[in-house]
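tool_call: predict_structure(chain=1)
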Amino acid sequence: AIESRRLAHAGAGDESLDDLFARVKGQTGYDEIVRASASQELGRLASRAAAGGYVSALDRARAHAQLANTAEAFQYLHAAFDERAAGLMLLKVDPAWQNVRHDARFAAALARAGVS
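tool_result:
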């Protein structure tokens, strides 16, 4: 999984995590890559918002969920429902939500999206 993710980043021309890819191993290493990538994504989203560009609430929610920022994840998830984000249909199967699946609010979100 780490190699597949490295190849995806390389294919996109993203070398920002190369040092991390070179030193991590196993599930713990993969989890570290996911967190680093989510943190970078939040930075990109914040920059886009600061420049006046559109930022998907669902994208913010996913990144916060990957970082286990539960309060922020649900704040933006609620906003994603207000935006009627198409990606809500993937809540049940998207691994980005793993850190918040235990929360009762996630079960309510699945039901609201009609995918429980």
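agent: Residues 62 and 102 are 15 Å apart (CA to CA). Proceeding to next step.
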